[in-house]
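Sat 14:20. Reprocessing the chain from the morning session after the first attempt stalled halfway. Input below, unchanged.
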Amino acid sequence: MNTDHFPAFVDWLRVERGYSPHTVDGYTRDVTEFFACVGDEIDLPLLTREHIRTYLTSLYNTNSSATVARKMSALRTFFRFLIREGVMPHDPLAGVAGPKLARSIPVFLTVDEVFSLLEEPGRQDSFYLRDRAVMELIYSTGMRVSELVSRNINDLDFSGGMVRVKGKGSKERIVPFGNAAADALKGWFAQRDQLIVDRIKRGHEAEREALFLNSRGTRLTSRSVERLVAGYAVRAGIGVRVDVESGASVGAADALEAMGASSGSSAPPPPHAAAANS
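Finished this time. Tokens:
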């Protein structure tokens, strides 16, 4: 039975991803519901988009778009776990668009929405390791995007779980980051090193200090981060823009930043981010 994989999945969510018992229970219920729809005896490698679409059609009859998006996030996480374990060769959810979420009343991004955003980068994305590290570090520290892209590799202290951040007015502070961010960062370093090597081979000066690089091997920009996070938000079904208290219209990256700052980071919290209609 496919639910036999649940104990290992639950352990992975709790230990490696650091999810709360409430979130783990929710993911387990959502995946159980999927197999109740398509059949628990189905051969996992044979799952296709048609199975997914059949399930989604049944959901739309009785659930809101936000609930459907959350259930898709749970499935996507489960499938990626199975791919990692070698149980599945592909993700049947790849290329399946999530529902568009319309909101008339400003609300904070939910924890499930944040987790959905963090889980969205996958092997189909050329720089999913970098993008996952970018979003995990934003969420873990609450640092501003402009602060993130200006971080250098030597600003990290893995032994202490700390990152040195220089904010406005060149004021420096030390900010803790969690295990999920640390693992994501370490996962990105091999690709980062290869980008540096490739840039040298093209006859350009290496960008050895920057923590995050683009495809050309140069420092990632704030605009690129905002664009990549917004793209993952759309794919995850978080079809919102984010308004800050100043009234400015900003992106999903700012929502992630605000959620990180409100989750216990020692970084000074940025303006509260709320989701509004696109």
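DSSP finds ten helices and six strands in the chain.
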